[in-house]
Amino acid sequence: MNQTITPATSDVDPTLVRAFNKQFVTGVTVVTTMDGGQPRGLCVNAYASISYDPPVVMVCVQHSSSTHPSLFAATHLGINIMANDQKDIVGIFAGKGEDKFAQVVWTPAPHGSPLIEGASASLEAEIRERFQAKTHTVFIGRVRHVVVGEKEPIVYRAARFYDGGALTELP
């Protein structure tokens, strides 16, 4: 059993934190918004449900993301849980492309947030709070619209993607 212990009073080595995070299995989401009629989005794995009653969710977005200013100015955002057959779309939104939506079919949610066709599930949330957390902004949103599909989600662990239904590694 490999184990590294750090004293409680010392700063933790960032490589150990990265190694810790690689052990966490997470869903893959694409967070979206509209900016002056232009759809914007990025891949985010820092998503969580905060409560069901009322329905509140959160996502964390790095300040250096080109989508961050659009999200920060927005009143609503979309959260799309990518399906296990959408690895190519994940690649588009994980990259730095200018028009990520050029190859993606989407529909506007009631308040305009882009919801990606074929996603395992999508929602639109009204942004209620924004917290600064060093290099990221934590967006807290009240869920206003939900679409649940029938496809299994794609999941991520240690730089690999897996089928969320069968829990097998995807090619």
List the helices and strands and how they pair.
Elements: H1 14-22, E1 26-27, E2 29-35, E3 38-44, E4 47-52, E5 55-62, H2 68-73, E6 76-81, H3 87-94, E7 106-108, E8 114-116, E9 121-133, E10 136-148, E11 154-157, E12 160-163
Antiparallel strand pairs: 1-11, 2-3, 2-6, 4-5, 5-10, 6-9, 7-8, 9-10, 11-12
Condensed summary:
The chain is mainly β and 171 residues long. The chain is 13% helix and 44% strand. 30% of the residues are buried.
Task: Write a structural description.
The structure is a single chain. The protein is mainly beta and 171 residues long. The chain has a single domain, classed as Electron Transport, Fmn-binding Protein, Chain A (Pnp Oxidase, Chain A, Roll). A seven-stranded antiparallel sheet has the order 3-2-6-9-10-5-4. A three-stranded antiparallel sheet has the order 1-11-12, with no helix packed on it. It has a two-stranded antiparallel ribbon with strand order 7-8. A hairpin with a 2-residue loop joins β4 and β5. The radius of gyration is 17 Å and the shape is globular.
